[in-house]
Each structure stands twice: as C-alpha cells, then as structure tokens.
Amino acid sequence: MKMKKLGLLFMMLCMVFAVNAQELKKGDKLPEFQLKSAVYGDVSSAGLKGKVVLVSLFATWCGPCQLELAEVEKTFWPKYKDNKDFVLLVIGREHTDEQLKTYNERKKFTFPLYPDPKREVFSLFAEKSIPRAYLFNKEGEAVYTSIGYEKEEFEKLMDAVAEALK
C-alpha cells in the first residue's frame, strides 16, 4: 500500500512538472496561431515575422489585468503604436469579440483587443495565471516574459521593448 501511495505521489509530481514545462519561457519561439476578430481583423503569427511582438494575455474580470491595461493605454501604446516594426496583441482569454467590444465601450482603450473564447491561443503560452506578457524579438524568440502586474515589472518590459527595437 505504501508503494502505491509513493507511486501516486511520484505521478502527481511528474504532472506538476509537465504542466510547468508547457509554460512558454525566454528563448522559446513564437507559437503558430491565428486570431480572428470582426472588430480588428485577423492576425496570424506567420504574418508577424521580422516584427517585435508583445503578446498580452488578460481577462476582463482580472484586477491586475485592469491595472496593466490602463498602463498600456497611458504610457506604452502612445509610445509604440506608430512603430512599423512593432505589434501589440492584447488577447482576452475566454472572451468573444462581442464581450470585448462591450468591455472596451467602458474602458475606451485605443489598442486592439483580440478574442480567444476557447483558450486556444492562451494554451500555446500557458496553462493558467493572468495577466501574462511575452515579448518576442524580430527573430521570433521570447526575450521577456512576466506573470502578474507590478509597476516595476512593467518598466522592465518597457526597457525590453526599447532594446528589442534597436
């Protein structure tokens, strides 16, 4: 009986490590995906080659996500929205186009919000936890990742984007 419990514990530990192994990390390549939005048009990872890409994953009910997106609107988007070498993909986990449209009528964000109603894109990056940010350089390699929102961490992200665009 003790061996069964030990075996079960070992399997559970392996599952924990397997889940963590699925998390996208620095050095990983931009996954292949397609985003479809009736509001902002369609985007595919194939069309992002040669660009610096920031993928921001959020949910409308997530408090830290709201803080991060407010900072994106205030400081980040004005600085980079006209840069032809940069793409911002803000993706609403488990949200439809219609839900994001209603949400944005309240928030008045000027950057695009892409739906991911079935977590199909989110699952390519992570299993859980939002907000998340992933910055990819022009070669499509992750050069910065973060989970959660803190002002200091956001400043590091700003620096990483400036560095990637050099």
Automatic annotation (TrEMBL):
Keywords noted in UniProt: Redox-active center, Signal
Any coiled-coil regions, as ranges: none
Boundaries of every Thioredoxin domain copy: 24-163
Residue ranges of the TM segments: none
Signal peptide start-end: 1-21
Pfam families in UniProt: AhpC-TSA (PF00578)
Molecular-function GO term, any one: oxidoreductase activity
Gene3D superfamilies tied to this protein: Glutaredoxin
Tagged with keyword Signal: yes
Protein name as catalogued: Thioredoxin domain-containing protein
Species classification: Bacteria, Pseudomonadati, Bacteroidota, Bacteroidia, Bacteroidales
